[in-house]
Amino acid sequence: MLLETSRLVLRRFRPDDAPALSAYRSDPAVARFQGWTAPVSLDSAAALVEEFAAGDPDRPGWFQYAIEEKAEGRLVGDLGVRLHENLMQADLGFTLAGDRQGRGYASEAVRAVLDDLFGSRGLRRVSAECDARNTSSARLLERVGFELEGRRPAFTWLKGEWTDDLLFGLLADRWQRLTGPGTALPA
């Protein structure tokens, strides 16, 4: 499985990705709004890489793309897609190494996956959610075309506190309008 952009390759995980995965998932700032707790040991990262590599993007369930920066040939993040049983909708989530944030890489990766899901695979809807305090992720989702559909107050118990969840959705027809001829999404 391979998706490519001007600066990134989205590919299947490989065993040699474990050290980079361990490093960026061990960063407390990267882990802050995520379901795991930093640090992530090299052994835990190796087990995750093995699990991710075994995934099937065409079957219901989660598939995790490795986000590789072309220029340096190194893993800089991951992007998960959970395909629903009906094969017509999916959820997505993303994580990017702290030193690669703010450069448009996450937006670029999300757009590539959305192009594949809506274009090549013909999905009808993609959803995402994030911690309401994670304003960077919320802005990214809106920038690539997702619409805020709701807020669930004090919905998730995360790292010793209740957090609000923001719910986002994007329909195929909206994606086509946003990305069709003569249109350009902001970077």
From TrEMBL:
InterPro entries: Acyl_CoA_acyltransferase, GNAT_dom, N-acetyltransferase. It holds the Pfam family Acetyltransf_3. Residues 8-173 form the N-acetyltransferase domain. One of its GO terms (molecular function) is transferase activity. It is an enzyme of class 2 (transferase). Its EC number is 2.-.-.-. Keywords: Transferase. This is GNAT family protein. The lineage of its organism: Bacteria, Bacillati, Actinomycetota, Actinomycetes, Kitasatosporales.
